[in-house]
Design brief:
heterodimer, A: alpha+beta, Histone, subunit A, 3 helices, B: alpha+beta, Arc Repressor Mutant, subunit A, nine-stranded mixed beta sheet, three-stranded antiparallel beta sheet, 17 strands
Amino acid sequence: MKLTTQDVEYVAKLARLDVTNQEKEKFTAQLNDILLYIDKLNELDTMGVAPMSHAIAVTNAFREDKVAESLGTQRALANAPDARGEFFRVPKVID
Amino acid sequence: MEFETVIGLEVHAQMLTDTKIFCNCSTKFGGAPNSHACPVCLGLPGVLPVLNKKVVEYGMKMALATNCTINPSNSFARKNYFYPDLPKGYQISQFAYPLAEHGYILLEINGEQKKIGITRIHMEEDAGKLMHDENNPVSYVDLNRTGVPLIEIVSEPDMRSPEEAADYLKRLHEILVYLEICDGNMEEGSFRCDANVSIRPKGQEEFGIRAELKNMNSFRNVQRALEYEVKRQQYLVENGQKIVQETRLWDDAGGVTNSMRSKEEAHDYRYFPDPDLVPVMVDEIWIARIREELPELPLVKRERFVKDYQIPTYDAGVLTADKALALYYEDVVKLCGKPKQASNWVMGDVLRFLNEEKRDIRQCPISAKSLADMITLIEEGVISGKMAKDVIDDMYKTGKPPQDIIKEKGLVQITDEGELIKTISAIIEASPNQLKDYRGGKEKLFGFFVGQVMKATQGKANPQLVNDLLKKMLT
């Protein structure tokens, strides 16, 4: 077992997910299975292979600094669960 | 116990690009709320951010100007946290592979140079803006600023006093503005600073527990907040209390820092490489091209002014604090060939006029050509320095060249010897007592005669000529 139920509780909290006790057990087992599977990679000798973060060997994909039309306030707010006037509206946050 | 202060600063500078860092929305300040937003910066599903090349180049300029090493391969990461001003649930930033590292800038402290290390410079996107409802438990979100490009410049904990920190901040600000990659406006938030500060007993190697200070929106407030925080920490230590690692907000009105008392849990941002953005590869050719584009930097310009124009270090500092002012000064010098005089008039009168009206040199009604002409007119003896004081006043008010003002006011200096001799003879004749006393050794009375001549000529007499003639005629 690489992962404990506490780990699952912790990441669930970070992701703001409510999970039942039953789900915690289930996810712990499933995540451990996944990690075990990934562990297979450790059987390979990767000495001398540079680490990579992307699946494709593309670099320097750039955009020119030219303004294009935005959506406009009305359309930007169209999918918002809650809006008021020209703003998105959310439960009060003060940090 | 004697303490030593340790300060490190994190500066966020908004890049002066037309568009956001990963989409084509405008970065203009002051648009209608949520009018500069598109699927990319709104974080809608299925969109692909693409990096604005100019952001990389601006970041490279700052990296080179601060003696950093640019990483040949750098890349973006996701910083995960939930906050309503961040629609994606993560901020795109750089983490393990920043744009540049290991730089420094030089400060001048009591006539000595001190190196302040720059740990790293990285690119990231800005978050949106929140407004809190006074009466209802809701907040309003404007996402126009979401995705506006920033560079973050992190210093080493190399500063040893709040003054040093303020000085570092000013130098950094100056460089950004000189490079024309940031407008440096602290009130509008295009130049922001957070400070890490701790104290330790003098001589101790190990750092103390630090506090992170936020919410300081001027140079003065950064220094005030740091000064307060140093005192607060010293008080705690001297009274046997513990300093806790926390974020504290500067309260400008109260002149104190207050604990944010946010969630007890430590942040866990779970950084990981952003799969949407491919690595940025920077080769030597690209770096060389950017280096070519760098303007002369403030420190170099300052030293050149001292050397080439023979003006004091202080004057050079004032004249180069603003790039446009330095340009103006150099134009005046080029046109009149008198660097010292030009410095005196620019620093004295021109800056005084501008400061009184809180104007910028770019809005100065006196053109460099006009000022240079005025200096030349003094040198040629057409007007005296004293007359010039009135002339420059009118030049500022009307924007007219000095020649016009001199003509209109009939201000031309009297340099005609014959005319002056006549005037002086009349004065000597009318002041027999003073003449006797002067000749009897009361040399102070020389000033009386100069005054009389100036009075009679309404200040138009060439002072040098008056001096020479009086010396001859009084003896």
